[in-house]
Amino acid sequence: MSNKIEIYDSTLRDGSQGEGISFSLDDKLSTAIELDKLGISFIEGGWPFSNVKDENFFKLIQKENLKHAQIAAFGSTRRANTNAKDDKNLNALLYAESPVITIFGKSWDLHVTDALKVSFEENLAMIASSIEYLKQHDRHVIYDAEHFFDGYKSNPEYAIKTILAAQNAGASTLVLCDTNGGSLPFEIQKIVSDVKKITTVNIGIHAHNDSGLGVANSLSAVEGGAKHIQGTINGIGERCGNADITSIIANLELKMNKQCLPDTHIQKLTETSHFVWDITNQNPIGNQPFVGISAFAHKGGIHVSAIARNSKTYEHIKPEAVGNTQRILISELSGKSNVLAKSKKHDLSKHPEALKQVLAKVVELEKEGYSFESAEASFELLIRKIMGDKLNFFKCEGYRSIIENSPNHTSEISEVSVKVRVGEKLEHKVAEGHGPVDAIKRALRRSLVPHYPQLNDMKLVDYKVRVIEGGDGTSSKVRVLITSKDKKDLWSTIGVSENILEASFKALVDSFEYKLVKDN
Q1: Considering the domain 6-279 in this protein, what is its CATH number?
Q2: Which of 145, 200, 486, 499 is the most buried if burial means most Cβ atoms within 10 Å?
């Protein structure tokens, strides 16, 4: 029995139906290229009959030299009581010129009678004639049996008739869809196993996550005999999303001895996940299995002490297997083990006095409201300063902020001046921005870039503010967390103050300073 599983990615079609998700044409093209690099078998590009953007995608993707993936166009069976050759949807699918066409049809008797309002016989004819027409044009046809599991539980005899109609018409793969996401793993495995016994082509699964079981149901389908799995990167999609392909691939390859991707390509999994979060402008889910930033993060001192001896004690796989990294968190729960593990390159075990100072400083700053869990760059600077690194790149001597409303109050201008000493030279620069924090960033950049051109590669990508326990009302302290990145790395810094601008200034200074430290 082959251990090869086809991975069919629907991020660009089903994923785009998620709330807050939108792909431009360029987004779709660059995402398809990224999915091909990962080694996905099939990439569903969209529904060419539904909009011009998807039609243009299929034209432009043909110019790309994809190495692993086949592009699939998506659509429905023909309309009721028409000829397949006259159906605009089917002809749009052919016009897309994709080597693979995926069409969906009804498997649930409820949908046939209440949604389509056609006879059972006409629904079977719609499925068969649509696939036959596409096969006449030499297309690889995948049939998505919509609501199959609900249909099978309602009327198994008719549900089976629908997929046999697709198989006999020439479909290469029959994909059983848990469209409402309400089925359970043991149901999925049994039904897939039953279907496998009476069909002769590949069986697939398309699971939604409405019960939080999209991944589990997909893996259960494989246990039942499925060789084709559909889903989306990061599980994005309508309602509660689709089955998350990143978890599916990792579990299949690392736990179930199934091959989904070319050799070693699973190490690109985390990178691909982050790419899709970035291009969809969504906040990554930190505790996302396998690829989340917290997936291999350790905070409790006992845990850290154990993984320092053997990572298997608290990690189910090696993070590097999926392109992720182990992280040691620093907080009020930290002990000596955390700090030693976090600062391996400084080897604080050989500097007991410095280690003692670091631990004391962390405790002191935590009381002030700092939290270094997500501000690893600021923690790195803290260690360096205690270890005696002078960090003489620049010194900030002060700043001034002015916020001015226009007479008609329709716009606001923020102006900031900063004084920064670089060596013997004092830079005094002024900048305007979209808000005072943006103005501070621009003024710092204007002061430092002439001396350190590499700062042009750096940009701020996230800014978070949280009010923490302190005084009353507006006198409470705030914690500012800033995330920055360049062409290679992503890092976060922190600032705390009763003044939001001061907290932001501290975090921004750390961010610029860390960029210079790591580059040098």
Answers
A1: 3.20.20.70
A2: 145
